[in-house]
Write a structure and sequence with these properties.
Length: 162
Amino acid sequence: MRLNRTSFAVLLACLGVALFCLVYPVYVIRPFRHQGVRELAVALAILQARFSIGLFCLALALFAAGRIWATEPARRPRFLAVAATLVIGGFLLLSRVNIYELMFHPVDQLVFVPQEKVKLDPAELVIAVNLGGTPRAYPIRSMSYHHIVNDVVAGRPITATY
């Protein structure tokens, strides 16, 4: 019985660490929130190390689940051990997804309208580019969501970013 309590404690700790490594960077780096220097440094360090930490947690969870499976005759503890291990594996897979690329994907297919047909507020801020006599204006309101626009102006590829 003592062995199973220890194994369940290890599983729970691995679950907590894997969840923390997945959620904390997203919480700190989310848009429209001020980040402190230290918390941003910690979030970036976790972001870089979370896959390795997740692999370690998964290996430890597999070991603990194996111990529970081998020593526990009841189905429920076995099911919980396997479920916790699968959740940790799911967190590991999710740690490979760059949520910021999903949120702030670049705009590649632009639609431009002539200046006289544009309906912008007079106070609307834009990023303006004029290359080779070809003007372009990218509204900050749109740029603040995407952060990056890929375009070709006067035959030259450019990237506008905000």
